[in-house]
Amino acid sequence: MLQRIQTLLLLVVAVAMAAVTASLPIWEKSSATLNEKVRLTAFSLEHLKGDTIVSNDSTAVIGILGIIVVCIAIFSITQYKKRVLQMTLGLINSVLIAISLGICFYQVFKVGVPMFEPEVQGNYGAGFAAAVVAMLANMIANRFIRRDEMLVKSSDRMR
Q1: 16-38: string of b/e by CB count within 10 Å (b at 16+)?
Q2: InterPro entries, from UniProt (predicted)?
Q3: CA 51 – CA 143 distance, rounded (Å)
Q4: Is 20 in a helix, a strand, or coil?
Q5: In the chain, N or C terminus with fewer CB closer than 10 Å?
């Protein structure tokens, strides 16, 4: 049924990953002395020196994965009668969110941090927090879907 708790959790997954793809900053690092700034979003890693863009690397893979996760979460909400399919879609979503977080960490530590002042790590932004919330909500939703499936199986056995 659509009013179950897992539906709300899957909706949280969709909204959180949509927020990640809406260009919320995933990570930022700035230096007042050098007047430089680096910002990671779902679609770009920008390096600014003053007001000029020094480099603008594409990180569209994070954005594309986010869009796919949103689509799968919304589709999974409509599949409430097929709990096994819903669990499979939840597993796929977990893997995709983990991959996008892994790409974020790679971009931060291998590309972003060494740009200037490598001893300064920078700060994670709202986009990173939204991705973590999406991952946790997806895991909890899968747990509730599995619990419902076990409940249906046990009631079928009792008949």
Answers
A1: bbbbbbeebebbbbbeeeeebbb
A2: DUF4293
A3: 47
A4: helix
A5: C
pTM check: above 0.85? yes
Rounded CA-CA distance 139/123 in Å is 26
Query: What contacts 45, CB < 8 A, 6 or more positions away?
Result: 38, 39, 55, 56, 57, 58, 59, 107, 111, 112
Backbone angles phi, psi at 40, to 5 degrees: -105, 125
pLDDT at 80: 82
Task: Scan for tokens 């960490």, then name that residue.
Answer: 105
**Distance between CA 51 and CA 138 in Å, rounded?**
39
Indicate the average pLDDT of the chain: 89
What SS3 state is found at 159? coil
Q: How many residues does the chain have?
A: 159
The per-residue pLDDT for range 73-86, each reduced to its tens digit, is: 999 999 888 889 99
What is d(CA 138, CA 154) in angstroms, rounded to the nearest whole number? 24
